[in-house]
Amino acid sequence: MTSKTVLITGASAGIGKCFAEFYAAKGYDLILTARRLDRLTEIASALSAAHGIKCETITADLADPAAPDAIWAEITARGLQVDVLINNAGYGMNDHFVDYNWADHRDFIQIMVTAYAHLCRLALPAMLERKYGRIINVASLAGLAPGTLGHTMYGASKAFLIKMSESLSLETEGTGVHVTAVNPGFTRSEFHTTAGVQDTVDKMPSWMWMQAPDVVAETYDASEKGLAQIIPGRANRITASILRHFPPRLALSLSRRRTGQIDAYIYRQMPQPPTSK
């Protein structure tokens, strides 16, 4: 058992929920945050009962620039500390860049880029002072892939998280603090059933998929080893290696042809922005 505490954003479903289950099973206390209080309360009660850990919930909408500071103020007011930060909140925007209002893009950048960096900045000083801390930023294989026809901001946001995590890993080397970006590919979780796309997902070859618990377990091991980046799954690592060696023009050409095929499988499985176009 451990007395350490994990803060997980986007913890109400998918990989975020799986991270919560994994760390609870290892005896970590939890602070779970998302927009849906009812779902958070349900998960917190179940994990507390199953593993005998403390589980706090904080509702927040990370599209609000004030949300990270508000989360941290609440954590401080409750007398808690964050030993592990897992930045996981996110969603996808499927169509072309001009098909969305700027407000949609602004909120997307706030949630997928700015809030991640802001929470890292809030967590790091105390971690460095205690000489212990773990930060996991959930990026994506899309952050290593060529640009896509549509989904313009998604891969760009994940590329930012990868580079930021690598730089922070260098800055914290030797301090007891580890910063890791995880780049999942196709990952099965409860979200597909909830979103009503399970039939579509099941049409994809099984070798392309990983189970969310396996992604989380590999990520945990990489974080504890102090790796700056992890690509879970052998198939994903092979894909990433091939992408790195493609000439840029050829990579973009292939991406143009493949985006339409991939579109229905990966990006349309993600939660969508609440605003209308």
Verbal overview:
The protein has 277 residues and is of the alpha/beta class. It contains 10 helices and 9 strands. It has helices spanning 14-25, 37-51, 67-77, 102-130, 152-171, 191-194, 198-202, 212-225, 234-245, 248-263; strands at 5-9, 29-34, 55-59, 84-87, 133-138, 177-182, 186-188, 209-211, 229-230. It has a 7-stranded parallel sheet, sandwiched between helices. Strand 4, helix 4 (102-130) and strand 5 (133-138) form a beta-alpha-beta unit. The longest helix has 29 residues, at 102-130. It is globular and about 50 Å long. The chain starts with a strand and ends in a 14-residue tail after the last helix.
Number of helices in the DSSP assignment:
10
Order of helices and strands: EHEHEHEHEHEEHHEHEHH
| Chain-averaged pLDDT | 84
Calculate Rg over CA atoms: 18 Å
Summed up, what is this model?
The protein has 277 residues and is of the alpha/beta class. It has 10 helices and 9 strands.
What is the strand and helix layout of this fold?
Elements: E1 5-9, H1 14-25, E2 29-34, H2 37-51, E3 55-59, H3 67-77, E4 84-87, H4 102-130, E5 133-138, H5 152-171, E6 177-182, E7 186-188, H6 191-194, H7 198-202, E8 209-211, H8 212-225, E9 229-230, H9 234-245, H10 248-263
Parallel strand pairs: 1-2, 1-4, 2-3, 4-5, 5-6, 6-9, 7-8
